[in-house]
Design a protein that fits this description.
Length: 344
């Protein structure tokens, strides 16, 4: 079947461009009025797309809410395609700022719990990397590029120092299926909760790497990401997590600077993020956006919230584990003591 012949099965085809993917994306409808997301790709990416499909099906089998593929195939004259069910929902990055802080926190908790479940999907045989060798190569490449490009990255020696400090941890880390780009832009908020989308950057590696998002380093949506960490670990993370996060975050931030070398605006933006990261890592591996929230988040937010009612809480409570319902009940109790009405 050619691409043209496949497209003829749809009565409505609307191309759109969102994100940095090389895929072509279309909002399509069939004769029955059913709506889908269609992504087409070149032949060189066929094997990887097939593996993406396999990983999505494994996630679905674990009841992890991910974008649902309904068709996959190759064109006679051009690459291939994946057809997904259309998801009615809002991009979480747009929705978060409009939600009460406590709801942002519990959305983060739910995201962390689901990520932990996703990371139970093991890396297929033959895909696991030697993380020690992989990151030693990345450190060497960053230092080399700083000289080649003439970019004096601030405290670049910190990359090598953090690698040395984490050598033993890197050798013992498990490896699993990773989304590869977990951030609020790749999560949809629906009537039923959240759904992970855009697995374009999926890979296999240390599960803790999936908790990196450069926007966190600037403190954006900090309560959502704090909840994500609490949901993932069922509370406070172990200290080795912050040690490795410091290393992963710094290496990623430095790499992104060079990636945007030819784009002045993005270059300056990523360089600022890198320098901000360096400054706080001099003081602590625990980022300031996390440190600013104390351990009694629900009660603290109860005192700060001034509305008459909080939507979504009961939905979130019913979809999370027992670890979360206890602090949620404490939050509701705090709200009542503040004279704020909470629906049951």
């Amino acid at each position: 079947m050619t691409e043209k012949e496949y497209f003829e099965k749809f009565t409505s085809i609307q191309p759109f461009r969102i994100g940095n993917s090389n895929d072509k994306k279309y909002d399509v409808k069939n004769a029955d009025g059913n709506r889908f997301l269609l992504r087409t790709f070149d032949a060189a990416r066929y094997s990887r797309k097939k593996q993406e499909l396999e990983m999505l099906r494994k996630a679905t089998a674990l009841d992890i809410p991910v974008i649902n593929p309904v068709e996959f195939g190759a064109f006679d004259n051009y690459g291939g395609y994946i057809l997904f069910d259309w998801i009615e929902g809002a991009n979480l990055s747009h929705a978060l700022s409009k939600l009460p802080l406590i709801v942002q926190y519990y959305f983060g908790i739910r995201c962390g719990e689901l990520l932990r479940k996703m990371h139970t999907i093991p890396a297929p045989d033959g895909t696991a990397e030697d993380l020690h060798a992989h990151y030693k190569s990345k450190v060497d490449s960053i230092i080399k590029k700083s000289h080649e490009y003439g970019i004096a990255l601030k405290n670049i020696d910190m990359c090598l120092s953090l690698f040395t400090q984490n050598e033993l941890l890197l050798k013992d880390r498990p490896q699993s299926f990773l989304h590869g780009d977990v951030n609020s832009n790749n999560i949809l908020r629906t009537d039923d909760g959240i759904v992970f989308i855009d697995f374009e950057s999926f890979r296999f590696g240390d599960p803790w790497e999936d908790l990196i998002d450069l926007s966190k380093q600037m403190g954006l949506n900090s309560l959502f990401y704090t909840g994500q960490i609490h949901g993932y670990f069922g509370g406070e993370p172990p200290q080795p997590f912050w040690q490795l996060q410091a290393f992963y975050a710094l290496i990623n931030a430095a790499s992104v600077v060079f990636w945007h070398y030819d784009n002045p605006n993005r270059f300056n933006e990523t360089l600022s993020s890198y320098e901000y990261l360096v400054e706080y890592l001099k003081k602590s591996p625990v980022p300031p956006w996390y440190r600013k929230w104390d351990n009694n988040i629900p009660m603290r937010l109860a005192l700060e919230y001034n509305s008459k009612e909080i939507p979504y809480l009961n939905t979130i409570e019913s979809s999370t584990s027992w670890r979360i319902t206890k602090p949620l009940r404490a939050f509701k109790a705090g709200m009542r003591r503040c004279g704020i009405k909470i629906s049951e």
